[in-house]
Amino acid sequence: MDINRILQSLYIFLFLCLNVYVGVELIKGTSNKTVVKVSYPAGTILLDGEEAPVTFFEQDDLYVPFEWMRNLEARMYIEEEKEMLVLPLGNRLLTLREGKLNDYVRQKPIHVSLQVFEKNGEWMVPLAVLRDYYGYDLSHIDEEDVVILWRPQTERIFMGAPDAVIRQEPSHKSPIIKTTHNEDTVTLLNDFDRSYYYVMNSKGQRGFLSKEEAFIQYAEREQGADSPYVPKTPMGEPIHMVWDAIYGAQPDLNKMPDMGGINVISPTWFGLYDTGGSVYSKARIAYSRWAHEHGMLVWPTFKSDFQNPSITHEVLSDFDKRTSVIQQLIVYAEKYEIDGLNIDFENVNLEDEENLVRFIEELTPVFHEAGLTVSIDATFLSGSENWSRFLDRERIGEIVDYMMIMAYDEHWAASPKAGSVASLPWVENGLKSILELVPSEKVVLGVPTYTRLWEETGDTVSSKALSMKAAENWIKENKAAVRFDNDTGQDVATVTKDGRTYTIWIENQRSLEKRIALVKQHNLAGTAIWEQSFMDEELWKWYSDTLKKP
Q: What is the DSSP code (8-state) at residue 542?
C-alpha cells in the first residue's frame, strides 16, 4: 500500500479526533460556572419544600400566627379569655398558658418557656408545638433565617450527589446555587423532567440537579404524633346495646327481662342540672353489678337539658365549667363502676357547635385514660339547627369511639302527618349520608322498639307511643286489618270507627330483622335499642340468635 496514502488517512483521522475533542470542550465550556446566592425573606417557613404564606418571628422562641397553625392541625384551639392554647393529642390533651404546659388528663404541670399572646390583633403560638406534640420535623437554619418543616407521615427521598451542582433553573447554562460534597444529601421535591430533579438541601436551598450527577440513597417517613385510641369491643364481638330509660322510680332488678344478645346497657343516669355545670345522678352501684353479672357493660347516658338549651350553652361555652362536668363524671364513673359513657346532647343552639366539639375533645382523653369507652348519640342529617345541624358528626366521629345513630322519629309525636317511626327507605338513605362522614366501624344503628298509634279526624292528627306488645294487643282488641306496606317496608294496621281512622306502622320481628340486615350489609359496629321496656320480651332470644348469624 502506498505509504503516502496511509499517512494521509492517518492525518485525516487525527484531524477529526481533534475537532471532536475541541467540540466537546467547547460544549463543556458553555456550562455556567457562576455561583449566585439565593436568599429568602427573613422568617421564611419551608413547609414540605414549599414557601408557607406566613413568616415566623423570634421572641425567646419561634412564633407564628395561630390561624395558620390551625390550618395544619384543625383540632387545636385557643381559649381566648384565658389566653390558653389547647392541644388535643389523641389520648392526651395539653394546655399551654403563662409558661406552663399542663397535662389535662393526668393533671401534671410542666414549666416551659413558651407563651401564647396577641400581636396586632392575632394570636401567636410557638412553632415548637408542631415538633414536640404533633410529630413534625423542624429545623431552624440560623444563617439563612429559615425554618424547614415537614409534616408527619410525609415520605422523603434522600439523594446522594457527590461533587454535583444545584442550579437555579433546569439547564447547564443556569447559575449555580450550591456545589455539593461527598457527604452531602439532598431531598427530592419532584422529578422535574428527563434530565433534572428539583431538590432541596439541608440549608433550605432549592434548585435543579442533573440526573447524571445524583442517585437515590434512601426513603424516610416521619412517624407523627400518638396513634388514636382504639376502643375494645365488648367481649370481642359487635356492640348490641339497649337504653334503659330511668325517669322516676328505679327499676326492680329482679324483674328485669333476660336480654339475650345484649352486651351493653345504657341507663339514663346523668344530666346537666344548672348553668353552673352541676351534674345530677340517678346511678346505683347495685345496677352496675347486676349488669356485669349478666354479661353487660354499663355505659350510662349523660344528657343535656333538652328543654332549656341556654343551660347547655352556659356550660359548653365556659372552659372551667366543662372541666368541672368532666371531673364530676369521672368521679361518678369510679364510684358506680361504669365501663363507658354515652353522651346524648339534643336541642343545642347552633352557636355551640364548636363548643360541643371542644367538650368532646376534652372529655374523651380523660375517659380513655381511665379505660372507659366514649360514645355519642346523633340524629340523621336534617336542616334543624337545634336537633341536627349543631352536631359536627365528621369531627366528633374522629374523636369518640362510637356514634349511636338515633334512626327513629321520622314521624315524631307531634308530627302534622301520620307515618312510620322509622321506615326502611328513610333509614337506609339517612345511613348512607352518615357513612359519608363517619367510618362504618364506629357507627351503631339505633333500633326503635316502639311505634305510634295515630288518630286522624279530618285535618286533625294526634298520636301516642306504644311498646311492641301494647301495639300487638291493640291490634287484636280492635281487630285491625294488617297489610304489608311496600313504601315503608313494614306491616301496617288500620281501623276506622266512630269517624276516626287509627293507623299503626308496626315494629315487630319482621322490621327488626330488616334493621339487623342493614347493620350486617354496611359492616356497622352494632345496634342500640330504644328502649328496653318497649321490647317484646318474647323476642329477646330470637334477637340474640339473629345477631349471631353471619
A: H
Question: Residue 476 corresponds to which amino acid?
Answer: K
The secondary structure of 277-331 as a DSSP string is: --EEE---HHHHHHHHHTT-EE--EEE--TT-HHHHHHHHT-HHHHHHHHHHHHH
Q: What angle do CA 384, 385, 391 make, to 5 degrees?
A: 105
Report the Cα 208 to chain-centroid distance in Å: 39
What pLDDT digit, counting tens, does each position of 257-278 carry?
A: 999 889 999 999 999 999 999 9
pLDDT tens digits, one per residue of 321-368:
999 999 999 999 999 999 999 999 999 999 999 999 999 999 999 999
Name the helix (H) or strand (E) containing 63. Answer: strand 62-65
Report which residue type is found at 520.
Answer: K
Q: Please name the helix (run of DSSP H) or strand (run of DSSP E) that holds residue 355, with its range, or none.
A: helix 353-369
Query: In terms of Cα–Cα distance, which of 464, 461, 465 is closest to 449?
Result: 465
Global pTM value: 0.84
Separation of alpha carbons 195 and 170, rounded Å: 8
Say if CB 164 and CB 213 are below 8 A apart. Answer: yes
Residue 272 cell numbers, joined: 346537666
Pair 397, 356: CB distance under 8 Å: no
Give pLDDT < 70 ranges for the chain.
Answer: 1-30, 182-183, 222-230, 232, 235
SS3 524: coil
Q: Where are the domains of the chain?
A: 57-126, 153-221, 228-402, 407-424+443-517+538-550
Q: How far is the C-alpha of 447 from the C-alpha of 438, rounded, in Å?
A: 18
CATH number of 57-126: 3.30.457.10
- Fold entry, domain 407-424+443-517+538-550: Chitinase A; domain 3 (3.10.50)
For every residue of 75-122, DSSP letters joined together read T-EEEGGGTEEEEEETTEEEEEETTEEEETTTTEEEE-S---EEETTE
Query: How far is it, in rounded angstroms, from Cα 338 to Cα 333?
Result: 5
Residue 324 φ then ψ, to 5° = -60, -45
Question: Tell me, which fold does domain 153-221 have in CATH?
Answer: SH3 type barrels. (2.30.30)
CATH number for region 228-402:
3.20.20.80
